[in-house]
Amino acid sequence: MKKKVSQSQLILPLLDAIEERGGAAKARDVYDLVADRVNLSAEDRATRITISGHSYNAFEREVRWAQQRAKLQGLLRPAESGLWTLTDKGSSALTKATPGLVVTIFMTDKGAALWGHCEDAVGLLDDESISLIFSSPPYPLLRKKQYGNLDEREYLDWMVRLAETWMPKLAKDSSVVLNLGDAWRRGEPTLSLYQERLLIRFEDELGLNLCQRFAWQNSARLPNPAEWVTIRRVRVKPSLENIFWLSASDNPYADNRQILVPYSDSMKAMLKRGGQEAASRPAGYRMADGAFGNDNGGAIPGNLIVAANTESNSDYIRGVKAAGLPVHPARFPATLPETFIRFLTRPKDLVFEPFGGSLTTAAVAEALDRRWVASECMLEYIQGGQLRFPHAKAA
């Protein structure tokens, strides 16, 4: 592999992936999850090596060795039918918040990072105080129930109950923006319709309206699920993720002038000419002479956000590694929260991130002069995210 990831660096992402699978999984069920967590490129994910005449996937071999090291450290134990399960020690590799208890870990002049479950943390916020909730909740696990994880129906119930706790905290002109990725059904090359079902329940049960759909194009995304994309080759690489903008109001605050993009060269030339020449379009619409002749400082963007998620050597990653802390496995590029914070909030407005992760949203809100609150249930992830705030004060 060009990007060398040591077995010791793979242990924590491996434990995290197995926990996501409900605490028990076979090695083949976590390869793609671990690859995502260490930002492995598609090329490195597919690299093969030959040992004693046998060909092996290099990355998968390293994951299996990491599995053995985790076993020797008492973090994993083998179970029946090739399953590996987390031990108590493995489950506590990260310090999880106690349900019902919320602790402020650090503060800045604009925000606070809370260690606690999001259902508990939101209760500390004032009613009608939140202008924007921006978050990427965990995706549902569409697999058999024997490992104890949530199925699709339970996931939907949980998300609706969670969103219900947000409702009294939302300002009258507020927005909720959720990045909801696709979920593939276990053992078959088909997708769940959980996103559509969730949106319908949000509207029917909570009164949340769908304002607009956005798509995030991540050109660097791995070709997952590998079984259907790279092995059997019956599906193409999914490079889009859905982002849904919702609001309890039919008139939430929004101003697309805050997110204008540079004009294309052809538009610049048209502006220089004084606008569009009078002409009829094929559909019968007639363009007036001088149309599109006003320079508004930029073009209104479309609802496709292109942002590669390729962070591998940022200040955040270097800092957490130097501090001996885990790198959060599910980070998104700062472009995503920046787009919606600029678009849907004003300076001093409050942004809430229920699944704080590495505190990317909080750092963007801070830089854009918004107030923020972020909750995260894993203490080490907050401690790592704190490195984004050099002037933070311990609570």
Keywords:
10-stranded mixed sheet, alpha/beta, Rossmann fold, 32% helix, 2 domains, globular, 3-stranded antiparallel sheet, 395 residues, Arc Repressor Mutant, subunit A
The first-level CATH class name of the largest domain? Alpha Beta
- Percent of residues in beta strands: 15-25%
Q: Strand tally, please?
A: 17
Structural class of the helices, strands and pairings?
alpha/beta
Task: Give the name of the CATH architecture of the largest domain.
Answer: 3-Layer(aba) Sandwich
- N/C terminus separation: 43 Å
**Main pleated sheet:** 10 strands, mixed
CATH topology of the largest domain: Rossmann fold
> Order of strands in the sheet with the most strands?
14-10-11-9-8-15-16-7-6-17
What gross morphology would you assign?
A: globular
CA-based gyration radius: 23 Å
Assign the CATH superfamily of the largest domain.
Answer: Vaccinia Virus protein VP39
How many domain modules?
A: 2
Helix content: 25-40%
Helix count from the secondary structure assignment: 14
Provide the residue-averaged pLDDT.
86
- The parts where pLDDT drops under 50 for at least 5 residues are 143-149
How would you characterize the overall build of this protein?
With 395 residues, this protein is an alpha/beta fold. It folds into two domains: 7-91, Arc Repressor Mutant, subunit A, CATH 1.10.10.10; 103-258 and 300-394, Vaccinia Virus protein VP39 (Rossmann fold). It is 32% helix and 20% strand. The chain has 14 helices and 17 strands. The strands form four sheets. The chain has a ten-stranded mixed β-sheet with strand order 14-10-11-9-8-15-16-7-6-17. A hairpin with a 2-residue loop joins β2 (48-51) and β3 (54-57). α1 crosses α2, α1 crosses α4 (58-72) and α7 (152-166) runs parallel beside α8. It starts with 6 loop residues before the first helix and ends with a strand. 31% of the residues are buried. Residues 9-95 form the Restriction system protein Mrr-like N-terminal domain. Its EC number is 2.1.1.-. This is Methyltransferase.
